[in-house]
Amino acid sequence: MKIDDYELLLQLEKIGTVRGTAKAVLISQPAVSQRLKFIEEYFGEQIFIRTSKRLKLTPSGEKILDHAKEVIERESTIKNTLAATSTEVRGTLSIACSSVISQRYLPSILAKFMNMYPNVSIDLVTGMSEAIKQEYSDYHVTIVRGEKSKDNTSILLFKDPLYIFDTEPFESRTVKDRPLISFKSDDSLQDLINHWLFYHQKEIKAMQKISVDQIETCKQFMKQGLGMAILPKSVSHTLMEKYPHVPLQVEGEAITRETWLSYQPGVRNLPQVNSFIELLLSEEFDE
To answer: What's the CA angle centered on 109, arms 105 and 112, to 5 degrees?
Structure first.
């Protein structure tokens, strides 16, 4: 049995379907099924029962999953111990990062980090900030948007101003009655947007709402004239010169989306983690 096999079991239990797990771990569905079959043959026990909705652990499967968690935890512990006692920066660095930050800033930062520390392995997960905050203990470092984590050390990286864009101008003294295109995000961003819309209901009226999954889709819909879009400045630089836009403000104060670096106490004792945090804090983010 390899560590990858134990990690696959945890993913299967967490996601609940072979198809979803295959998508998450970036291998084919038949390959996941084949590996699961091998693992069950190795232990001589059925681990999951397939139902119409999700995989269910058998009693033997529960014991095997507990064993898998212990093996992965021990593996991580010994790697971190060796990394902490080494003069060379190496080991594994686990990061969970907001999708917006992973698209706009993280590629160049990671490229710089890997060039400086080629012996460090990166374990990266991207997604919505709210989901990352719930599973913060699984990672050395998290980079999230909105409210900071209350259970970790949190450092403000930057404040990201919000703007409303459209293909049509924002005229003064008239009510702008247009569809509003929104992308999937956490509740804290929606609260900011709703607060601004309520405050400016005499100037902006969202006649209907169009919801899309991705922020990039939201931008493309706006560019095609389908309606207005409220976007953070960090992903809007190419739009600023081409499309009418207005900063979101309430009583003269800009509405911003905060980005936080968070980590658990003690992880900076690991050289690879501390080196990444130092690099991240030295970066200049556009505001």
So the answer is: 150
